[in-house]
Amino acid sequence: xxxxxxxxxxxxxxxxxxxxxxxxxxxxxxxxxxxxxxxxxxxxxxxxxxxxxxxxxxxxxxxxxxxxxxxxxxxxxxxxxxxxxxxxxxxxxxxxxxxxxxxxxxxxxxxxxxxxxxxxxxxxxxxxxxxxxxxxxxxxxxxxxxxxxxxxxxxxxxxxxxxxxxxxxxxxxxxxxxxxxxxxxxxxxxxxxxxxxxxxxxxxxxxxxxxxxxxxxxxxxxxxxxxxx
Length: 229
Ligand SMILES: Nc1ncnc2c1ncn2[C@@H]1O[C@H](COP(=O)(O)OP(=O)(O)OP(=O)(O)O)[C@@H](O)[C@H]1O
Fold this sequence. Notes:
Rossmann fold; binds adenosine-5'-triphosphate; P-loop_NTPase; two-stranded antiparallel ribbon; six-stranded mixed β-sheet; about 20% strand
């Protein structure tokens, strides 16, 4: 699990979109030694699952249908029973079974965000690209959704790159954080090593510190914005 951190407009979404093949780019993107840049969109979508920042459209489809068509789009060869069991497994893992027969148009923004994430997970990609997957979720769902993403990522041996603004969520659940700034990559590594007062100042322009909570988890506290002259 890798968190992609950095201030607004620094390029977090652009990075994920580029890895997903949505922008022209130069250079190399290697996944397990496979060059993604030369893969066809059809090949790439089987390896890479992308969750955009925008929520799924509030269509008249029920969640179950939306999930089944997400599986069918990348695995048309899969027997119906297998596709259906993948959908059920994913709903159960995320705790979303109650929403299975609800229309997306009748769901709240947060519920649609969770269905969007479920549509990515159900395809079992090798690389998950999640752009602010918890932005519309309440505190309980933020924790449970990211915990489930971590469990599934670990179980399937997948890689997850997640753009987030919540540094504490990133520190708690990610193995690695990368911090983007105006000049490019500012830092990358284990959260406890990367997240320092210096990087908070350099990346975000704030004075802050990393403390430990009573559960001994690292917590970033922000004191104030750096004064600009
Ligand atoms: N490497 C880059 N070179 C040129 N333009 C870039 C680059 N990265 C991002 N941009 C441009 O900067 C703008 C904002 O980028 P992006 O949406 O990726 O930022 P973000 O970090 O995801 O922001 P936010 O946290 O506000 O969602 C976009 O218009 C994008 O085209």
